[in-house]
């Protein structure tokens, strides 16, 4: 199964920042096509878009040690929190939630 996250932000420029951060994650994991970003949708002053991780990048994140020290009892919580920290370290202002895993 491919994890699906919903990211929300009030700044449209953050979409490009998220794409850049995801490209950096792909590079770190040495994976091509490691994610898909869905079409953004505006609602109530927020911009929402989905990020779907590839089935190739998830095991690399899990086994590489990237999740060490990341809070969460389930792998889905750890992945969500990992992505959250990944974006925060790059100065991206957002909210993230897990949709499906």
Question: Could you characterize the architecture of this molecule?
Answer:
The relative contact order is 0.27. The protein is an alpha+beta fold. The chain is 37% helix and 26% strand. The protein starts with a strand and ends with a strand. The protein is built from three helices and five strands; from the N terminus they run βαβββααβ. The radius of gyration is 13 Å and the shape is globular. Strands 1, 2, 3, 4 and 5 form a five-stranded antiparallel β-sheet that branches. It has helices at residues 14-29, 57-63, 75-88, and strands at 4-9, 35-37, 41-43, 46-53, 95-100. It has one domain: Alpha-Beta Plaits, CATH 3.30.70. The longest helix has 16 residues, at 14-29. The model has no long low-confidence stretch (mean pLDDT 93).
> Any low-confidence stretches, pLDDT <50, length ≥5?
none
Overall domain count: 1
In CATH terms, what is the fold-level topology?
Alpha-Beta Plaits
- Text of the CATH class: Alpha Beta
Helix count?
Answer: 3
Q: Kindly provide the radius of gyration, computed on alpha-carbon positions and rounded to a whole number of angstroms.
A: 13 Å
Approximately how much beta-strand content do the residues carry?
Answer: 25-35%
What gap, in angstroms, lies between the N and C termini?
A: 6 Å
Principal-axes geometry comes out as: globular
Helix content: 25-40%
**What's the helix-strand series?**
EHEEEHHE
């Amino acid at each position: 199964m491919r994890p699906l996250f919903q990211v929300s932000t009030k700044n449209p420029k953050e979409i490009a920042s998220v794409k850049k951060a995801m490209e950096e994650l792909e590079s770190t994991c040495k994976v091509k096509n490691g994610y898909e970003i869905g079409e953004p949708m505006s609602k109530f002053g927020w911009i929402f878009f989905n990020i779907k991780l590839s089935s190739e990048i998830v095991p690399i994140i899990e086994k590489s040690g990237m999740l060490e020290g990341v809070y969460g009892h389930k792998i889905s919580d750890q992945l969500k929190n990992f992505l959250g920290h990944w974006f925060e370290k790059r100065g991206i202002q957002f909210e993230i939630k897990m949709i499906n895993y």
